[in-house]
Design a protein that fits this description.
The chain is mainly β and 717 residues long. It is built from 10 helices and 36 strands. It has one domain. Strands 5, 6, 20, 21, 22, 23, 26, 27, 28, 29, 30, 31, 32 and 33 form a 14-stranded mixed beta sheet that branches. A 5-stranded antiparallel beta sheet has the order 3-19-18-17-16. Strands 4-15-14-13-12 form a 5-stranded antiparallel beta sheet.
């Protein structure tokens, strides 16, 4: 991550290919493009332990861990984009990426495709308030930033999960929501003396009667002793795990089987024992539960000098395909009489180490001269909405997407990866796993994208990536002189309103349906108002938008070759967008929607009455629309105030690192009561006055003292 592994790859333009050979259909897993054996194929007991069976208690409260706000802001600590920026100066002409003039420019006057109007109409969407800083405070005893969240739906339920380990379950109309359920409770972490870590994901799978999956990384250190901040986040030996919870039935409030993956057993990469399984994302196929994470070395003494594999402390993307049926049926990793369970198998691909899976700009992570980052990360597996949409060609296939902006200069390529032969996971003892292969293709000449996500206003261009937000009351910022935890330098009377983090142009969610793989990445975009040249005869503004890609698999099914079916740009005129996520409906269904947080200050002209507080918005897409259908962005949940959380001010007047939810989520549910379900971070309630905040920092129970974020739950048919 067998058939005969190919040790030499043939580069054809920007596509990675091997010589053609016969085979195909839905039978034998034969690879006809980049195809090589995974790094490991065999019993899951090499990586996994479990399961333990847990029936969670609803509404259980936790004693907060003894950690500081500074620690609470460090969820999702590693920052690959920062590493790219750090090493941008090492670029040479010999390794420069293939880019167009970036960021892309589009015309807003006259209006061209991609410069979209903003409508206050929800266009049929309904919305409800989900998890928020206030109810996290009540359940967990603290609040965190970023509040990464995910949404999944099926069997008459909608589930929302949230950093740092809590969830609520609703019916399909968002009514009858449960009390908060903590993942410390659901995963049995409290009984183990362990703690929730974050980077949370969930999905509903229809097979075997229906089952829910939840993942997050956890730490083998107890909450009351500092939790994850005193263990996995602190780089303590052998403390990081990935928790994988699988519901026993299709009832998410019932019993769960919980497995744990140990990232320090999967390979011998630099830092083994201190490896962090960061930014884990999940997907599903007919046969496999897909899991991906980025591997970081947290032990500085074991980071090799450059050039060498892992010399930046980044070891690259790690891909897993685990027997889905065995997980859903609750099979044990090891049978009671000893030895591994013969039906719980795993396939593993180390994308960072494998020299045959490297980007064309370089070899293994950090192993090239001059020393550059050049390393696959955020290679996200695809979620499939229902069994009718699975790709069962080549013995069962699964797909992943990753972007290629490794140098901080933007790029015009997108990569799609695949597993084939996944039905082998159902074989006794993985006996047919020699037919499994992992491969991919790089599609060049795509729309350009550039967003380094650095902590400066995106409107200034360059590496900057903070989106603007409408000015409004910020009682925490105005009172930061009496909030000593916010400051690591000298006190100030007040702190200014900050921006909304975008984190860069990596993929965060992938959807597969109707024979198409969909994903979107963030990008800066130059919006031109008027004809001519920017700054001379035309006014231009730089904003954050999104580029999306639709990759067809029909030729892959027959010949092993992917095709870029469609691509497009979505950009809100005068405003910004953060963390785009796409859900595809598939054949016979509405094609797709893209959801995102919408914010902005109206640009230089103060358009839209001064812009938008962080809001939930969406657009509809088709496989040939090249952009938003109707060129319209719809707001489904309008923000009520600016982001006023502690990471907006912590460290001011020195360096700060504003945080926003690191990803949004969307999924399609077919059938009666179905449609598109999506969730983003937004600001659900108006901020109270400075004076009222000093008396009641919860502003009447609508926020936490150090955070006012909320998540919206949304549906549209």
């Amino acid at each position: 991550m067998a058939i005969i592994a190919l040790s030499v790859l043939v580069f054809s333009g920007n596509s990675i290919a091997t010589p053609n050979h016969s085979g195909g259909g839905s039978g034998a897993a034969v690879k006809v493009h980049l195809g090589n054996a995974p790094s490991y194929a065999g019993p899951a007991s090499k990586f996994l332990t479990g399961p333990i069976k847990i029936t969670p208690t609803l509404g259980i409260a936790l004693t907060p861990p003894k950690v500081s706000l500074a620690q609470m802001s460090q969820i999702h600590i590693p920052d690959p984009k920062a590493l790219e920026l750090k090493n941008a100066a090492t670029r040479t002409a010999g390794v420069a990426p293939l880019v167009a003039t970036l960021p892309p420019t589009l015309s807003c006057q006259p209006r061209a495709l991609g410069c979209d109007t903003i409508s206050s109409s929800a266009a049929g969407a309904t919305s409800a308030i989900g998890v928020s800083a206030a109810n996290m405070l009540g359940a967990y005893g603290a609040t965190v930033e970023p509040p990464d969240q995910s949404i999944c739906a099926g069997a008459g339920h909608v589930m929302q999960v949230e950093n740092i380990g809590e969830l609520r379950v609703f019916n399909l109309k968002f009514g009858d929501g449960t009390a908060v359920i903590t993942l410390d409770n659901l995963m049995g972490l409290t009984g183990l003396g362990w703690s929730s870590g974050g980077d949370i994901s969930c999905l509903y799978d229809y097979d075997n009667g229906g089952h829910w999956f939840i993942t997050e990384f956890v730490s083998t250190t107890p909450e009351l002793a500092g939790g994850v901040f005193a263990g996995c986040f602190a780089g303590v030996l052998d403390t990081c795990r990935e928790g994988i919870a699988v519901s026993v039935t299709n009832d998410p409030t019932g019993a769960w089987n919980v497995y744990f993956l140990d990232p320090n057993f999967v390979n011998t990469d630099p830092g083994v024992g201190f490896l962090l399984n960061d930014f884990a994302k999940i997907g599903n196929t007919r046969d496999a539960f897909l899991l991906s994470y980025d591997e970081f070395n947290q032990n500085g003494s074991t980071i090799p000098a450059c050039p060498a594999y892992g010399c930046f402390g980044v070891n690259g993307a790690q891909q897993f395909a685990i027997s889905k049926n065995a997980l859903e049926l609750g099979y044990p990793v090891s049978e009671p009489f000893g030895g591994p369970d013969p039906f719980l198998n795993v396939l593993y691909e180390n994308m960072g180490f494998d020299p045959t899976i490297q980007p064309p700009d370089g070899a293994q992570c950090g192993a090239t001269l001059p020393a550059t980052f050049v390393c696959w990360f955020q290679v996200i597996p695809a979620m499939t909405p229902d069994p009718a949409q699975y790709d069962n060609s080549w013995g069962g296939s699964g797909f992943m997407i990753g972007s290629l902006d490794f140098f901080g200069a933007g790029d015009t390529r997108i990569a799609v990866f695949d597993w084939t032969g996944l039905s082998a996971l159902n074989s006794l003892g993985c006996s047919t796993c020699t037919g499994v292969a992992f491969g991919g293709q790089i599609l060049s000449g795509a729309l350009g994208y550039l967003d380094e996500g650095s902590n400066c206003a995106a409107s200034t261009g360059g590496f900057c990536g903070l989106a603007a937000q409408k000015a409004g009351p910020i009682p925490l910022g105005d009172n930061c002189a009496v909030s000593p935890y916010l400051l690591n330098t000298s006190p100030v009377a007040s702190c200014p309103e900050g921006g909304i983090a975008t984190n860069g142009d990596g993929a965060t969610q992938v959807s597969f349906a109707g024979g198409q793989v969909w994903s979107a990445v963030s990008t800066l975009v130059v919006q031109q108002f008027g004809k001519g040249t920017c700054g001379k005869t035309a006014e231009c503004e730089i904003h954050v938008g999104a580029v999306y890609f639709v990759i067809g698999t029909s030729k892959f099914d027959s010949k092993g070759v992917f095709k870029l079916t469609d691509e497009g740009m979505v950009s809100a005129a005068h405003e910004d967008m953060e963390f785009p996520a796409i859900a595809a409906g598939g054949a016979g269904y509405p094609a797709a929607i893209m959801t995102f947080t919408l914010s902005g200050d109206g640009g230089p002209t103060g358009a839209d009455h001064g812009g938008f507080y962080p809001s939930t918005a969406y657009v509809r897409l088709s496989t040939s629309s090249h952009g938003a259908l109707g060129d319209v962005i719809h707001i489904s949940a309008k923000g009520q105030s600016p982001q006023d959380g502690f990471t907006e001010y912590q460290g001011f007047p020195g360096p700060i690192r504003p945080r926003w939810g690191d990803y949004n989520a969307a999924i399609y549910v077919p059938g009666a009561g179905g449609g598109f379900y999506f969730a983003t971070e937004y600001i659900a309630y108006p901020n109270c006055s400075d004076a009222a905040f000093l008396v009641d920092p919860s502003c009447g129970g609508t926020r936490a003292p150090f955070g006012n974020w909320g998540d919206s739950l949304n549906w549209v048919g």
